Amino acid sequence: MNYYDSHTIIYVSGKYLLATEARGDLYSQTLHYGNGVFEGIRAYETPDGPKIFKAREHFERLVFSAGTMGLRVGESIEEMTHIAYKVLEANGFGDAYIRPLVVADPSMGLGTAEKAHLVMMAWQWPPLLGDAPVRLMISSYLRPHPKTVHVEAKVCGHYVNSILASTEAKKLGFNDAIMLDVEDHLAECSGANIFVEKDHTLYTPALGHILPGITRQTVIDLAREMQIPVVEKHLTVDDLKAADAMFMVGTAAEVTGVTAVGDIHFPLEWDNTFGHVLARKYHMMVTHADPQPATLI
Ligand code: PMP
């Protein structure tokens, strides 16, 4: 996958530059120790032009993530939203994935670098795991304990955990993996939250050991609007064994059905699940095809 070519424009601390001409510092604390933060945001082509889905929520989470690591983002939420639209426009993108990244200054010490810079790029990225339902496994890697790092923040270094889980799953022929937390509860996938359907109710892991996904909250809100009961609680592998269906949600993956986790096969056909209905609703919402646009940001 080529994320950029010789025409791609990106934003680098105050300037719009060709991606091929932008430079990073090899002594950045982000590169050496993973002390940087990022977001993953999608823009969708809508009847009113490209619209960034929940820009405010994503940029607020970026500022929150930066705060957990003591990194300061100079740009305001409004400025970051404006920059994101400028990057889309400069590259002629409608549907696109936007990646803001806060890069720390050079520092080889272990105190947070004094300064950091915002970089923003965008590329065209179809749903991360494709459109068809996928197969997962239970990862041999656990999510980090919330007392080891701020698991509720999108910090670059945390993603070595996701890379290990995703790589292991792909090597074994699965699309991705569900990681458990240190208490053996289901946590989340490498880059997506999960929902389980059982007896006409949706269940999703409670906050605490997971990234509080913006898609997760959107799906909870959509389900409740549709009178589908949603319960946030600790779930175990036994809950998966008893489940009727399951799906995963995230900005990159959107709403993706799951047919099986290891040798646990879900009895409901994807087309007959709440997940399938919510996947369609989500798509209508982000592309403004929803007849009730009042819920849009
Ligand atoms: N969990 C992890 C570990 C993630 O990286 C992501 C992607 N940001 C998610 C869940 C889903 O979050 P969101 O819906 O905000 O994209």
Can you describe what's shown?
With 297 residues, the chain is α+β, with helices and mostly antiparallel strands. Helix content is 26%, strand content 28%. The strands form 2 sheets. Strands 8, 9, 10, 11, 12, 13, 14, 15 and 16 form a 9-stranded mixed beta sheet that branches. Strands 1, 2, 3, 4, 5, 6 and 7 form a 7-stranded antiparallel beta sheet that branches. The protein is globular. 4'-deoxy-4'-aminopyridoxal-5'-phosphate is lined by residues 40, 162, 188, 191-193, 211, 213-216, 250-251.
What layout of secondary structure does this protein have?
Layout (H helix, E strand, L loop, with lengths): L8 E4 L2 E4 L10 H5 L3 E2 L2 E6 L2 E4 L2 H14 L8 H14 L5 E9 L11 E8 L10 E5 L20 H13 L4 E5 L5 E4 L3 E6 L2 E5 L8 H12 L4 E4 L3 H6 L2 E6 L3 E8 L2 E2 L8 H13 L11
Helix pairs in contact: 2-3, 5-7
The structure holds 4'-deoxy-4'-aminopyridoxal-5'-phosphate (PMP).
The site of 4'-deoxy-4'-aminopyridoxal-5'-phosphate has 13 residues, from helix 5.
